[in-house]
Amino acid sequence: MSNYALLNICYVIGSLGFIIGLKMLSKPETARKGNLVAAFGMGIAIFGTIFLYEFKSDDGTTKHLGNLIWIFAGMIVGTILGTVSAKKVQMTAMPQMVSIFNGMGGLCAALIGIIEFRHVLHTIGEGSLMNGNTITIILGMIIGSVSFAGSVIAFLKLNGNLNDYSFKGQTFFNLFFLVAVFAVAGFMLNGNVESAHLMMYVVFGMACIYGISFVMPIGGADMPVVISLLNSFTGVAAAFGGFLYHNQVMLTGGILVGAAGTLLTILMCKAMNRSLLNVIIGSFGGGSATAITGEGGGTIKEISVGDAAINMSYSKKVIIVPGYGLAVAQAQHICHELEKQLEEKGVEVKYAIHPVAGRMPGHMNVLLAEADVSYDKLLEMDAANDEFATTDVVLILGANDVVNPAAKTNPASPIYGMPILEVEKAKTVIVNKRSMNKGYAGIDNELFYGNKTRMLFGDAKKMLGELVNEVKAN
User: What is the 3-state secondary structure (H, E, C) of 275-336?
Assistant: First the structure.
């Protein structure tokens, strides 16, 4: 069998690995295996390309890939960096890691576009630059550049190094600049080869500037949507690379990532009752948030650890609402221990998961899975909202915006219209926070002042540890 046939078999196996792996990722209990299956498919495709790919040289002879030392050196360095980063990253920093890794994918697609366009310029002679091949190259470069620059900004914002920034007329500026990027690219492809050398870098720079300007004003609870959208951009850019190289596995992987990211973005927008356009141009979660006055003149009611433990110990049903504060405290394991102690007393314990809880899609699911919480106990928003009315105690651990009633009651609030976890329907709501600081959307939460709400201040890990001890003693 020829190397060409073997390589195509490797690409088919790689594509099947991506498809099966993605399918397995749809269920928490098979997600880990799905990652391994997809990684195996990627490995087959990479090594098949390295050892089996053949091409015709200028003298008509068949050649294999060269520079194997550089290729394997790059793979070794990347593997070490990726492994160390993945093992050392804290759960609170997982969104940042996802953003920067996605940005590296976008940069890779952009560099492919730059290198291949330079190759075209050196080989095309006096021919026209406006053809399907060069259009594919430029589109991949533009989309990859936007994804790279936007992901870097998302990383810096999630990491606390950069604040949301917007200026008057920024929406129109962004739209104008996006049109300008494609206009300059079109002018470049219709121009001569000599000017195209410089204009290629101009297009790359303009695309990066657009990516920065596009993400800068977006913050708050919209960041998970933006991360998902940028991920889809990277997939689309990779798909253009697949078209360019006639590489089936690269095309399949890019289409899967692009489609999955797009669908996830749409689903999260639906969960927030907002359009994608509104997310992109609305500067949601920015500095224009309107403060909310709580019920009872803004008076909060505290509860002791002992009283909270008694309330939960003698309940029939307790629902735990995890949020970013739980991740910050790295308290998922002690939370699982509290769940087990309550169940030993006959209490039914479940978890309510909002689609945009945390700072990336699925953040809370991953957090709880790390602590071996049963997937059957995780309720999606709609299912949880149906159960709150029959719940004795809701324990909120570091969640804020996703339980804020202002989303239903205050038209002036920037989160108005976003579906929330309707925890106020429960008999008692216990909120664990370190302080009364506002959530990621930058607004106050009127739930904290409700008649049913009791505040339990302190670090989530410390408070949960004390709750476990008190529940054992009751």
Answer: CHHHHHHCCCCCCCCCCCCCHHHHCCCECCHHHHHHHHHCCCEEEEEECHHHHHCCCHHHHH
